[in-house]
Fold these 2 entries.
Entry 1:
Amino acid sequence: MNNKDLIHLIRAQKPALPDALDARICDRLARLTKEEQAMKKRVKFHTVLIAAVVFVLLAGTAFALGRSNLMEYFSRGNLKPLDGAEKLIQTDFGEAVRQEDVIFQVEEAIFDGKTAVVQMLISPADPENVFLLHQGIQDTPEDVYEVSYNEDEYGGEYRTVTGRKDGKKIIAYSIALKMANENEQYVFKSSSLDGEELSDGSVRVWMEGRVISGAPDKMDVMIRSTYAPLEKMNDIENRFVFEKRITLESGREAAYTAFEIAENNMDARVEVLSAAVQMHALRGEMTVEYIYEEDRKSEPMGVTFKMYAGDKEIAVGGGEQTLLEIFADGRKRYQAVFEIEAFADFPEIITLEAKVVGQPRTLGQAALVASKSINAAENNVQTDIPGLYFAPEGSWSGACVTLLEGEIYSGRKIVLSYSYKGDRMKHLDVRFIAPDGTSVGEVETQMTVVKENGYTMTAMLTGSGWPTSMTVEFVLNGQVVDSFEALLYPMEK
Amino acid sequence: MSTENRKRLFVKAVHAKKAGMYRVALVILKSSADAEDACADAIEITLRHLDSIRDDGAINAYLMRCTVNACHAILKKRRKEVPQEDFEAILPPVFMDSPVWMYLSGLDEKYSVPIAMKFSENMTTKEIAEILRLTQGTVSTRISRGLKLLKDQMER
């Protein structure tokens, strides 16, 4: 018997699912619902979540959420935007465009300076005979789709979709939102894609992205879709491409709040270094920097954080963690960035709770107090870069360096984000020079985005007792290529 | 991503993955009732921690990972109550219509699980490596060796 025969037998003799499996799952989830109702620990939304999941599993069908516009998209989530955010919706993106078998229409878009969502309708020109299939779809049941098995490197087989049993021609497509121009003074990245199939064969998609450095009032993004008949999707030369560039405008200043640790009751293995909140109209963003001593055996997925204002949990969405540093003793420094619900006035006192990912276990709490809360306009701060805490005097742009953002965290750290236009293999050093000519503090630099002609980086100055004005120098091969005079602010309120 | 969207993804993932989760659990536990329990445990844990799963594309992998963990927890509990050899002696046959799966479940778990994931559930080597916390090379090696051992068992 060869491998091919053996693998065929493994597939052909797959054990059948017992009838009791669905019932066992639903019983467990129903018990969860009762426990939560009895304990009243979660808000009503989460109870509905579990009950709704049980219902859907029993019914055997997927959700079909009837969204009709962008605010519906946001309102169904737990991260509610601010009242009045709908004023930021833009709708004037021109007529629908037909290319070959597909019609594209940008319906709505919204941008708050940080989060951008574009809503688009993609329709087959001939819905009776054409079906649109997103390339990322994994659920392709064999009672709906024709599939084939092909040989792989082990002499076994892998599965591919080759058509539909109803005979409709499949147009496979992908779609993404990206920066229109890589050389902008901000960096925008796509973060998620969601879609809904409509009864007429169209698909409404919502493409979401976030600005990860810089603070643009206006941003050009590109919507790009690649599509082709299913059998030609791997033929790069014969795929179709739809592109549309749109300009998104935000209309609201961000509010920034940095926090200091007032009381620390966390496990000794978790040390919160800093926390800050940046608040926009659609979502807020919490950044927590912390040191964590791992326990790979009992905490294989590490830790995350929950936030509370009094007894009320602050709703948290997606996020990411970045490893910043590994110490000699094995401890690691991370930066965790989370989306949070929008607040008109973010609480000045919050509780941060460290929690083991994938387990109910927590590792203690810390009470945080706002150390500064600045709205640039309210404080008459004059700057060309909104929200900057550590700023050049007046406006500044260098020969090859562009300053994107500068912030002070908890009075212990200044972080500058900047882009460098030049040889991406050459590493810029950053120095902070006091008026007396001496170097200030310790500086660490980290590359965040590498581009074709340069990169963006962050430089972090740690320490304390900084002079209120400093010269920031960008050094390449021992030569100062750019520099600016900076003021340390905000001053006391 | 909004919680509603994530909820919908979770439901789709459960529908898509429950068969695979059950079969992997069956290969490890060799008991249909325990495999059902492991699946229910894995789905409960994933649902409880849905908000912690940052990457939407990771929900499928999270479900499978939790299934393997749930199986290990059941095995640990079993060993405390009944010696493994006694337990296997009293297990009802679960692969009556699937002789090759009977041999597969007789292999060490480090071979049987990647083989089940690869050829029964059509998972890629990369996906298997992420779920089992192995390198892709190790996964490939274990699959190759496992297939050889399986063939040797069946041809005796």
Entry 2:
Amino acid sequence: MILARLSDYLIPLLLAGAAAYALGRRVDVFSALTAGAGEGLHVVLRILPPLVALLTAVYMLRASGALEVLTRVLTPALTFLGIPPETVGLLLIRPVSGSGALAVGSEIMQIYGPDSTIGRTAAVMLGSTETTFYTVAVYYGAAGIRRTRHTIPAALAADLAGFLAAAWTVRWMF
Amino acid sequence: MAFIWVAITAAAVICGAANGSMAAVSAAALDGARAAVELCISLAGVLCLWSGFMELLKQCGLEAKLAALFRPLLRRLLPGACRDPETMAAVSGNLSANLLGLGNAATPLGIRAARRMALGAEGTASNELCRLVVLNTASVQLLPTTVAAVRAGCGSAAPFDILPAVWISSLLSVSVGLLTARLLERVVR
């Protein structure tokens, strides 16, 4: 709980601390903040088009029931690798949708209990991976990259390693 | 990206037809476009705030100090980016925000670094840029605050008792991602 309290202090302290330090160094704090914020607005405009394209595709995929079909197909293989079958749905949605993954993960924790092996595995999976496709779309969209080369395969390999490690460490530690 | 987009939409159309859920797929396409704009608007304020914060750090010299802290690690991982002080500062900020679990702050900083690293690359991702993005897709947080909050909400006895497991999994995931990128960068041109 102390950790949770600490993280409440983090952002306000960072902002106030940096501003106080800058003031001490005779920097015009307010105009520095607004100049940077104006730059941020340009970035927002650049990432909107790739996000529209990506989220349209992801929402279509979710509505089509393709993830349920994939879950059914992949469950035996993933169970063999030591991943609890109850978490396979989470594993598939994690790379494409952050809010979707959080919803699926919370549901798993509610059904099986946050301190059960399955609930813990889901939590570790959520904590040790990111929304891969969203990150790639935002970074490369803003940077104007069209040829992503080996980024997606490497990122998905990292996700898979994270899921396996989550299942194994929870089973071994608890 | 083009191939992935076509693969996702084709899969959606085929599965939608097979499941008879084409009406839902069609509605979802429009929903997705709207969600992207909503996401951008919700992201806009945070993006502007942290960009402003970075500008402040730059002007008062804290940015250079942060970069010096990460130099030993980044010199091996992103040697090219290390030659440009501003890219280096953005990457350092991105990594520290990630470590602290401030995903919202990490994104603008990572974008700033990615934009500088993509200069003159004509739309093709360099090996180092791929490494930076893989690092960010693999999540290296020390404090997974969101997940802990969800666990606490579900009545967990100790929401943060998963920390060691999260650290081990994150570390393994990042290592595998970077290793795969190393191996593939020679194959994929």
